[in-house]
Design brief:
It is built from 6 helices and no strands. The chain is an all-alpha fold and 132 residues long. The model has no long low-confidence stretch (mean pLDDT 91).
């Protein structure tokens, strides 16, 4: 997709896309953890929190950046550069912005119905955590 192609998601603000992308990403993490093993809910939540926080998401965004198309990178940067109204509880402001960029990207892809691309990018994240 080239830079001039407009999609449905282009009409949304980056923070709206990040709001949706946060839910998409959270569900992907939960599904992956449940598929790994049937564990007590408290253990699953502990593992989820390790992947769904601004520091981890910032690291994952760095990992994905070389794989992103020009358009996807622009979407990520729109999210990263957006000015959220809240400040991070745990983590740096830079990590929070990077995490917002990642969530924006996942929201963008979701709105555009790009499930295969979401799965492709998320598989890189989950395989990275499998190695730990």
């Amino acid at each position: 997709m080239n830079q001039t192609t407009h999609t449905k998601a282009d009409g949304y603000s980056p923070l709206t896309l990040a709001f949706l992308g946060d839910g998409v990403y959270d569900l992907l993490v939960r599904e992956a953890l449940v598929n790994r093993a049937n564990r007590p809910a408290g253990e699953l939540n502990r593992q989820k929190v390790a992947m769904v926080n601004c520091k981890a998401q910032a690291q994952f965004s760095e990992l994905l950046m070389p794989m992103l198309s020009e358009k996807e990178l622009a979407v990520y940067k729109r999210g990263r550069n957006a000015a959220p109204k809240c400040t991070p509880k745990n983590g740096s402001v830079a990590d929070y912005h990077s995490a917002t960029g990642l969530e924006c990207l996942f929201g963008y892809l979701y709105i555009n119905g790009e499930k295969e691309r979401i799965d492709e990018l998320f598989s890189v994240i989950i395989h990275t955590t499998d190695k730990k």
